[in-house]
Fold:
Amino acid sequence: MGNVTLNNGLEMPLIGYGVFRVPEGEDLAEAVKTAIARGYRSIDTAQIYRNEESVGQGIRAAIAEGLVTREELFVTSKVWNDKLSYEETLTAYNRSLEKLGLEYLDLYLIHWPGIDKNHVEAYKALEKIYQDGRVRSIGVSNFHVHHLENLLKETTVIPVINQIEFHPHLTQEEVRSYCKEHGIQVEAWSPLMNGALLEEALIQALAAKYSKTPAQIVLRYDIQHGIVTIPKTMTPSRMTENLSVYDFALTDEEMAKLDALNDGLRCGPDPEKFDFK
Structure:
């Protein structure tokens, strides 16, 4: 698997395992352990997903069975920063560690910028956690350019990641350009548009050409753009398929055709309007 080097020198896998909308329970714990057994080294969860306990259970089981060491994993969670104060954000981090059963996270993100700029105080708490050596890196999620500009004016640690909705129908070129200029790695959530992209004619045609699945075409598109991507699946065979995207490459013309699908279509909330309600 390929890695990217973040702006603090930490390496992160280009493809991770996402668990959005997967409920707490034994099925998820087993899926996380299976994903690790299949080769995933990056696991992405969040406070609001309400499944950190099961994710942690799966991680700890994989470690206990000798499938991986903790140092080989890259574990991400996110703070749900609805009007969170500085102190509440520090408490939220501790709570996530307790639920996961881990001593540290590799990446901790602010989940949404909010519409009242409360993200600055929350991010200052992340800076404190980072400066104290309790998390290996910090970043943001769903930030547009003006959110990032405001954050960089008020804080000192440049985010290593901006995790955004990204796929051929929402390429977010302005955000990506700003992030590249400032050394912030872009990460894609919902890379398959909750499965909707799998029916796209162009993607199906490329899948046929390369003898790949439509999902593999989209994930290859992401990594050729240098974007970290975190597909979700509970099916072991698809876990393996989603990692098997390093034995082919899309042409520049094919990448351009996929880019041309961009029409601003979202499958998630708009960060400019999302107010946590």
